Amino acid sequence: MSAVIIARHARTPAERFKDAAWVAFVALLLGIPMVGLTTVDEGGALTVQTRFGMLGAFVGASFAGRFIFRWIMDQIRNRRAAKPPVAKIDRTPQAIKVIGWAVLGASITLPIVFSENRYVIDTATTVLIYVMLGWGLNVVVGLAGLLDLGYVAFYAVGAYTYALLFSHFGWTFWEALLVAGAMAAAFGILLGYPILRLRGDYLAIVTLGFGEIIRVILVNWTELSNGPNGIGSIPRPTLFGLPFERNPAEGTQSFATFFGLEFSGMHRIIFLYYLILVLALLTNVFVARLRKLPVGRAWEALREDEIACKAMGMNVTNVKLSAFAIGAMLGGFAGVFFAARQGFISPESFTFTESATILAIVVLGGMGSQLGVVLAALVLVLLPELGRNFSEYRMLLFGTAMVLIMVWKPGGLLASREPTIRLRQAATEGGEA
Amino acid sequence: MSAATLLSVESLTMRFGGLTAIDDLSVSVPAGKITAIIGPNGAGKTTFFNCLTGFYKPTVGSVRLAHPNKGEMCLETMTGHRVARDAQVVRTFQNIRLFPKMTVLENLIVAQHNFLQKASGFSLAGIFRLPGYRKAEAEALKKAAHWLERLGLTDIADVAAGDLPYGTQRRIEIARALCVDPVLLCLDEPAAGLNPRESAELNTLLLSLCREEGIAILLIEHDMSVVMNVSDHICVLNYGRKIAEGTPEEIRNDPQVIKAYLGEDDEDTASGEKAA
Question: Fewer CB near the last or first residue (10 Å), C or N of chain A?
Fold first, then answer.
């Protein structure tokens, strides 16, 4: 049996040669303008020069590279095929659990290890903001299957709600947090109503428009939002009323004086990191719980088949609106944190690129997978950071990585789905999952 | 007709622009019996189902349900989900509509959404897993387990529904509909795509549901081995009109029905017996 499979994968040298020659031909076509020709500045005038030697090397490298690559791939495949088929035990759920705990452990210890490295902690905070946004959008896109291209609108609503509540009424971070979440949820429902009947591409277009509308309003309604100048000096969050300041106001204490520590700018950075970590973890627990509740199952059922939902007596309107509202609320929370962390917000922070990045995190992570979102956020935030050394090739690297991931794992990094309830488990453990 | 009428449809008409899919149709469905709707393709059978179950709003006519606990209800004024939720008239689909990525058990639990959603205090009690919600969930699970057992699906309860064979998916769809506690179960071609053994099993199932559980069944079907063996009452549609109604025996010998099925032209012969 296995011999037959091996025979099918074995290629003749002629076939290998042809395959590599074809790749070399494509490389030649692409290489002529990109490598073979170059412009040179000769006394103020641009002239075109040829670099055929380099082009030859490029084509040769493509040929050899393809030849070797193909050979290695075939070897791997044959070895795999030669192995006797083993009964596959699906270890994915356990593996996900182990990775999940490992990531959690790493994220808790990170500020301790890098306590003097501001860059690392700042980047990690950014990753966590995206993780939280990803988990929020996961409710709408991953669970309920409603493609939302304007998620950044709710992020903006949350951020601006806090900024405005502070600048007009002097509200603090903690006071504004819940109100901003509720405000974002209200906007979620506001967006949800007109688009109840839409799905797929049409839904995506309307949500895209909604995201832009919010941004354009923020740019143009100067009296409310201060327009493109943004809102500044937003206060940082405090730890139960203890601010992170070098010189606290007369008669009050700061974090450093209260604990008798020497003031350090890093305290605030680390505090912000832990704050977003806690917010993100709360989001995770909240969404994971909701998923196992009737409302979560209804979201997934809606993603699977809306008409069947109706036939089961489900009020599809409520299911959709709840998904939009919960997703928007979580985005609003993240927005409040963003405003507090930056201390300054302007409409420029809430462009379509942000929506696209968050959506990419959800899709790349595997729709509906919580851990997948974490991994994808790491990839999408860290890749451009790592790519800083390559400056102009940075986005090229980023794009290549995305294409490779989607080719290698079309369903996202973690595409497996864990059932919300199991018959055996439920019967033996009495309903507790 | 000895049994009480459960559903009475009167002069139902459904037009789509210039096309009249159902034309002045009056049917009554007896309680606790199996009624079959048959007819050639395009006769308006599925449109009729869509009108009953709130997916279409009929142009003219009334659909009244004599609900055993809630009294008389007008289904034609109820939209979408309310027919299933309030009137408990539940349907299946001609081309199976399961929740394919969810497990069989989850499919059956989703069918009990309204009950569970209320028990979870619209998620407020559920998020903290309060005892009231956990009790309701256990109850829903028990009901699901009952129907899984009844339809022989227990062993595959934790498998994604979309990964299962066609015949099994048909059974899952029926099990899911049963979890809504139907007073009238509308099955749209439940035997389509089943092999002879599977359709024989379907016959047994339908008969036992009707006789033992007292669920009235309304059935659209092309497979005559199912229709003739289980139906108490048959209604034949053609071009949106009712052309015959009666027991299986009467329908089998009805010249109008034979003509509709064999496609004989009126001008050719006056008597429809010739074509055999």
Answer: N
In chain A, whose CA is at the least distance from the CA of B178?
A: A312
The full set of domain ranges for chain B reads: 1-88+182-276, 97-180
Instruction: Tell me: do A19 and A59 sit in the same domain.
Output: yes
Residue A94 lies in a domain: no
Chain B within 8 Å of A90 (Cβ-Cβ)? no
| Chain-chain contact of A423 with B102 (C-beta, under 8 angstroms) | no
Are A132 and A64 within one domain?
A: no
- What is the dotted CATH code of the domain comprising B97-180? 3.40.50.300
- Give the DSSP H or E segment for A314: none
Q: What is the DSSP string of A407-433?
A: HH-TT-SS-----S--HHHHHHHTT--
ipTM: 0.87
Of B113, B141, B180, the CB nearest to A298: B113
Query: In angstroms, rounded to a whole number, what is the distance separating the alpha carbons of residues B74 and B90?
Result: 15
Q: Given A289, A313, A419, which is nearest B114 (Cβ)?
A: A313
Give yes or no: residues A211 and A325 share one domain: yes
Using CB atoms, which residue from A312, A417, A422 is nearest to B111? A312
Domains B1-88+182-276 and B97-180 share a fold: yes
DSSP per-residue string spanning A180-207: HHHHHHHHHHHHHGGGTT--THHHHHHH
pTM, rounded to two decimals: 0.82
Q: Chain B 180-239, CB below 8 Å of chain A: which residues?
A: 180
The CATH number of B1-88+182-276 is 3.40.50.300
- Spatial contact of B205 and B174, defined as CB atoms under 8 Å apart: yes
Asked if B97's CB is within 8 angstroms of A305's CB, the reply is: yes
Distance CA A275, CA A338 (A): 11
B97 neighbourhood in chain A, CB within 8 Å: 305, 307-308, 311
Cα–Cα dist B264/B1, whole Å: 32
d(CA A333, CA A219): 22
Q: Is A315 on the interface with B (CB under 8 A)?
A: yes
Measured between beta carbons, the chain B residues lying within 8 angstroms of A286 are 127
With respect to residue A268, please indicate whether it lies within any of the assigned structural domains: yes
Residue A367 lies in a domain: yes
Find the domain containing A23 and state its range: 2-82
Per-residue pLDDT of chain B (276 residues; tens, 9 = 90+): 446 888 888 888 998 888 888 888 888 888 888 999 998 888 888 998 888 888 888 888 888 888 888 888 888 888 778 888 888 889 999 899 999 999 999 999 999 988 888 887 777 777 777 778 888 888 889 999 999 998 889 888 888 999 999 889 999 999 999 998 899 999 999 988 888 888 899 999 999 998 888 899 999 988 888 888 899 999 998 888 888 888 888 888 888 888 887 766 555 444 444 443
Residues of B in contact with A307 (CB under 8 A): 55, 93, 97
Is A220 in the same domain as A286?
yes
